[in-house]
Amino acid sequence: MTAPTSALTRPRATGSALRRQTRRFAAVSGVTLFAIVLVSAFLMPLAYMTATAFKEHEQLADQNAPLFPARPATFEYEGEAYPIYAVPTEAGIREWALIEPHREDAIFIDPANPEAGPIEWVGRWRTLEQVRHVELTFENFASAWERIEFPRLFLNTIIIAGLSTFGAVVSAICVAYGFSRFRFPGRNGLFLVMLATIVLPFQVTLIPSYAVYLQLGWVGTWLPLIVPHFFSNAYNVFLLRQYFLTIPRELDEAAMIDGAGPLRILRSIIIPQAIPAIVAVALFHFFWAWNDYFLPLVYLQSEPDLQPLSVGLGRFTALYAGDPPTLQAAAILAMALPVIVFFLAQRAFMRGVVFVGVEK
Amino acid sequence: MTAISESGTPRAVAARPPSGRFSSLETREALTGLVFISPWIVGFVLFSALPMLASLVLSFTDFDPRAVDEIHFIGLDNYVQMLHDPILIQSLGVTVRFALLVVPTTLAFALGVALLVNSTLLAGRNVFRTLFYMPMQIPIVASTVIWIGVLNAGNGWLNQGLAVFGIQGPDWLNSTTWVHPALVLMGLWGIGNMMLIFLAGLQSVPTELYDAARVDGAGRWGTFRNVTLPLISPVLFYNLIIALIATFQYFTQAYVISNGRGDPARETLFFNLNLFREGFAFFHMGYASALAWLLFVIVLALTFVLFRTAGSWVYSGADR
Questions:
Q1: What is the pLDDT of residue A1?
Q2: What separation in angstroms does the CA of B290 have from each of A202, A204, A210, B62, B283?
Q3: Distance from CA of B146 to the nearest CA of A (A)
């Protein structure tokens, strides 16, 4: 960079810099506002889900009910509950309880001053707006929790996803280490074959595998969902290998001179250096296993007690199609853990995904 | 490649170690490497190669897992049956029509969002990136449940929103006309990975090129058309292939909204749902194996055709 041109041009430069800054500020505000509108529309279904999950069933049937969870306000008068309406009066709008509706007039009572007795009001009460209070109900969660047997499904999912993630990570580390650090005949060919399996649709191997698992007595157990992951997955290996290649070989060589064997190098050099990539692979796999629907459906169709959340929720959707609040509450329960994990691990995760993206 | 170093002299070929002492070291290295990759080799043989072969064999049989003893070779019957199977032809048609609708839409949306969250004019870019990515973490069944609610003809928010503008919304998921657009809307929730891959592509475009384009007087559209698009065409290509393959494996959403039946009027009987039904509802596993091979051939053919045409539109960097 060269020094600023001359002192003479400075004042004008400052003026235009200010203008530039204002323009930039306007552009930033515009783009950011647009992004806020877009992301709000994008995430609107989440608002729907939340609002519905906290609604009482009666509210869904009510045409005039608001979008948010609310309950009609009532006032108890002489042992009975009466709905409250917003009534226009000479003194402005009053919230009165309707105790005796007629066609062209109605009798109200003022909850703020019930001693004053019934008030006669002339007009059509049907045109009045009912007063509602925001009120969240938690009973949908309780009923979803019970009816889908949430604790059991949740535990099943944790075990399946946890064990298969463990297997996937350990095996991918080993295989990626083998591919990235050792020379052996046919290495490149094998690596290519492995990459090619990424394009292989899993359906092609599905039916014979199913037949074999059936013979082994594995259908209706968790084994088909867990065991294959201990034999590594091309995608995970690819990602880890790319990362391992960026770790300087000098580190291995130094350790080797100190007498470390390959396992030792893997444990004390490679793994600590590759933690971000390993975390990314683990999260990827965990989310995948948590969300998978097809394979658990195939292998656990007839075992409701062993099913993961995805299949349990799918079954529930068919049974409770007419009960949106309970369904939406169940959806919240099913998505809570992965979404929480995602927000906690978001930085590591995004880095991992972008890393894969760059390498492709 | 010629082995000429910068100084112009031939590069010294690495001296081969004298055999004997070193070759045993080499053997040991090779063996260690093979031991480390052995989980994959075993897994590949057990879970990919053998099942693939077996599924090819099964596709020429009438295999039913409930009657393993009564398995017959029926030659090409399964493949011939495909030609006359109206349900398969329906499922292929549904899948192709859906692909033509969903692939361009999601690619365009993902690219648009990537451009937005890559813009230096956007404040809080990381927050937006995370929010646009977030639905990826919602289990597909759960997100389908959410969308079933949003798209509900009566009290779903989409139709209530349309009603504000005086538009009577359709019964999305039960209308043969609207069920595909509804599934596309659902599909927009799954742009996360695509968006991040586009983002990585956008970030690898050298800023000098943008400066050069500005000096040449290119506008926003011109810069996008002539600089950004060609330079991100490799990631566009990658996303296109992944999206096409995903469409041919589309399953969960269709299964959940139609209770596994492919309704309305088989309009959501996607290829993979049909395969699942043949194999795991009707136990026509020989036929389902043939369908799986058809799927494999389709995916290979699509990939092959795309790679062949890629040369004409995918920019692969300056001639190397």
A1: 41
A2: 14, 9, 15, 10, 13
A3: 6
